[in-house]
Amino acid sequence: MTSLTRNTFALRVLSTLVCATLAACGGGNESDDMTLAASSSAVAPVLPAPPVSTSQQPAPVQTEPASTVTTQQGAMGSSSSLVSRGLISRETTNIIASDAITDVRLESTNSLTSQTNVPITFGQVFAVGALLPSNSLTGRLDDGSQLPLQVDVKAIHADGSVRHAVISAVVPSLGNGYVRTMSLLKSNAAATVSSVTPANALNNGFTASVQASINGIQYTASADSLLRQGARATWLSGAVANEWHVSAPLVTSSGVAHPHLTARFAIRWYDSIKKARVDVTVENNWAYEAAPQNFIYDAKVTVGGVPVFTKPGMTHYHHARWRKLFWWGGAEPEVNVKHNTAYLIQTKAVPNYDQTIAVAETSLAKAKTGWVGAKTEPMGIGEAASYMPQTGGRDDIGILPGWATRYLLSMDKRAKEVTLGTGTLAGSWSSHFRDKKTDRPISIIDYPYMTLLGNATDTRNPATGQREAFPACAASTLCTNPNKHDSSHQPSLAYLPYLVTGDYYYLEELQFWATYNLLSPNPGYRGYAKGLVYRTQVRAQAWNLRTLAQAAYITPDNDRLKGHFNQIMANNLDWYSNTFLNPATSNQLGVLTSGSALVYSSQLATSPWQDDFFTAALGYTLDLGFTKADALLKWKTKFVVERMAGNGACWIGATMYSFNVRSSTSSPIYSTIAEAYRQSDPVYGSMACGSAGMLTALGLKPGEMLGYANSATGYPANMQPALAYGAQSGGAIGQKAWQIFAARTVKPDYSKAPQFAIIPR
């Protein structure tokens, strides 16, 4: 274990002992039957932390000498023979060997047959300073043998170290039902320059194609034909794996191209074993193609001359896309690459989810049994809500959705299938606009006057004299899609899938959603190419900022959209800082007032849970390295920590549904949290906080907060991520607020829905 990892672990154990079991949930509900009773005020008592039960403490960690590996052996032979056959199972741990950066576990998903020459490719994020682009990596397996790793660096940190890379290897052996641990060791060996070209695959007989039969006319695109033509993009290049991207419109036998339907192939070729992963995507995405519409066709994918997918009568929605994966040259490798959760969290690429949570087996089993039927097929939506504007506590609301956090904390194959599958099906919404000029998701920096929700007359670009509005649908009846999307309830669908796989499809999904959020508003409202998000609902501001930050953070450095996202991110942080760090336009509560923030109680109140979403998104933005968020976060966390621990606050009411922050629409924001409490509900000024009378008035039990305190998607749960960041940025009062929150006695069970179970670092 590295010293940094040891320190992180020690702090986490200490946090557990002091704070006990944590709670939090997600997704504020606005339906009438969920409206909460009014709240109350008084000074918040500092409660002692309850004792930690044995079940709440971290499991004991197995220790081992640096030069040895702890293993579990089945009744299948000696240790040495098991290692040589790839049958070692080391499923112990998030503990990293002292000489390794991190590790991954290679889990055989075949319980009957051992495998040899198993190809793997996965995405890996690195902590700042851990790996330089000039370094290479070696994989050390359980038996001490070393495996050459191909590292395709995609993004670097500000200090020049590697942020994200795609790693490929061919594992010599993997026993049936067993797990091998591969430590990633830094070396200075020179990377091997690839001499592999598509000819290597083509000369071995590789073929793949996709067909769409529309009204009796057959349209086709062939991956092997496109590779022979030579126009391709290279995604991976090295001695282990080479991946080439080719695309073209579907065409008839006479060469007539379909104006809307395009096939995209990503061919990942492992030359040493003569196998290929065939990634097929069909798009109906062109932004400025006339008469966009849905198309109904019979779809078929053929690999190696064999039909591998057919779907008659598929309705392909406008500005949507679908994807399927296949293998050529042999069966799909049956291996699950399990990342080191502790290290992923240490990099700050994902929030600091509470790693003491054991994800419930029932939820993992449900993920597997429920992953069937139309929702898993092209134009399905997986585990996401088909109607995004739906209000209420939901599994997909949060910095990461529930299914992604169950996967992150368990690294379970079933949860991973759902997470990647739902990321793939993110293409099913009509939110995908590709620019023919760049062949990339469209950008407001290229088209500052385009909009989805504004008027066409608002889209005239004075520099060009042209309107930038998208073409109208061929007919309103031809552009229906049962999947309704928005920004206010939008999950993070593709970020984690791209982070852990390095698949280009997921990268573009993330970019499509980030650009959709930016191009939706009236161009004047967003500041044209500035891409400002402050004019929307507070929750939309939160999720727009999160998705934009994820896209800016993880987009490869050689991608033209990287600079676009970074500039728009800076524009937004500058706007918020210039507005809320300026005494003339700021307020002492730390409450957001932009956009539709003050729409409750005749425009006198905000919704604390939405404000908490924004605070959490801002804290996560700082985690991702956007340092302009630092001073802003210190101001912003005041609202969440003062509601818990400020003078005159009453912590049990900190999660009321709406919170009065001014006395009239022309009045300034209150200067103290005590006044805000009193004006929100007189009970807070007339009764002691947590007294029997107050609890009776609010219908609460001792130790219970307002707003479904025992629910993993209630308002206290919504508060938890914001409060975790407040404990880090809010000084002594931030830490006091967290202690009060952690000491409450009515908490949710996060084992099935941990998306809000974020704790301070």
From TrEMBL:
**Record InterPro entries:** PcRGLX_1st (IPR048329)
In this chain the PcRGLX/YetA-like N-terminal RIFT barrel domain maps to 114-169
Q: Superkingdom, according to UniProt? A: Bacteria
Q: Which PROSITE patterns match?
A: PROKAR_LIPOPROTEIN (PS51257)
Per UniProt, which keywords does this protein have? Signal
Signal in keyword set: yes
Q: Which residues form the signal peptide?
A: 1-23
Q: What is this protein called?
A: PcRGLX/YetA-like N-terminal RIFT barrel domain-containing protein
Q: What is the lineage of its organism?
A: Bacteria, Pseudomonadati, Pseudomonadota, Betaproteobacteria, Burkholderiales
